[in-house]
Amino acid sequence: MAGLHFELVSPSRLLFSGDVASVTIPGTEGEMGIFPGHSPILSTLKPGVVTVYKDGGSTDRIFVNGGMVEVNPSGLTLLAEVAIPMAELNAEALARQIKDAEDDVADAKSDEARRKANEALEHLKAMKSVT
């Protein structure tokens, strides 16, 4: 059986492009396993980890926060608002960033500044929950 062509793109970079055995994604309706020949779908993502299963058994794990996924006859495309390889996530650095974000929420002078600070804080907490 032919492999599954998979591309994972974030606003800042292309994180993965190639043929894989399968991919597990955190869809908003639940975790989904995508294999070659999967039926076409379009879904939004929840914060979580995308696991890429390569031919030969190795895996890549990438944290995503927000975005969408499309499966069509040419493969699987995942467009993530934020995508960070799990190997790049550092628990101590995240803890410092969360503390700084909590300070930013407390120091916010306007509703808009508070909303943005809260959004950043929630994003950091979602990353911490998967490390």
Describe, in plain words, how this protein is organized in 3D.
By secondary structure, this protein is of the alpha+beta class. The protein folds into two domains: 4-87, F0F1 ATP synthase delta/epsilon subunit, N-terminal (ATP Synthase, domain 1); 90-130. The protein contains two helices and eight strands, in the order E-E-E-E-E-E-E-E-H-H. It has helices at 91-107, 111-130; strands at residues 4-9, 14-20, 22-27, 30-34, 41-44, 48-53, 59-72, 75-85. Strands 1, 2, 3, 4, 5, 6, 7 and 8 form an eight-stranded mixed sheet that branches. A hairpin with a 2-residue loop joins strand 7 and strand 8 (75-85). Helix 1 packs antiparallel against helix 2. The model has no long low-confidence stretch (mean pLDDT 87).
Q: Topology, pairings included?
A:
Layout lengths: L3 E6 L4 E7 L1 E6 L2 E5 L6 E4 L3 E6 L5 E14 L2 E11 L5 H17 L3 H20 L1
Parallel strand pairs: 1-8
Antiparallel strand pairs: 1-2, 3-4, 3-6, 5-7, 6-7, 7-8
Query: What's the number of helices?
Result: 2
Radius of gyration: 17 Å
Low-confidence stretches: none
Text of the CATH class of the largest domain: Mainly Beta
Biggest pleated-sheet summary:
8 strands, mixed
Shape: elongated
Question: Helices and strands: which structural class?
Answer: alpha+beta
> Average pLDDT, to the nearest integer?
87
- Supply the number of structural domains: 2
| SSE topology string | EEEEEEEEHH
| CATH fold assignment of the largest domain | ATP Synthase, domain 1
Helix content: 25-40%
Q: State the fourth-level CATH superfamily of the largest domain.
A: F0F1 ATP synthase delta/epsilon subunit, N-terminal
Return the CATH architecture of the largest domain.
Sandwich
Span between termini? 34 Å
Number of strands: 8
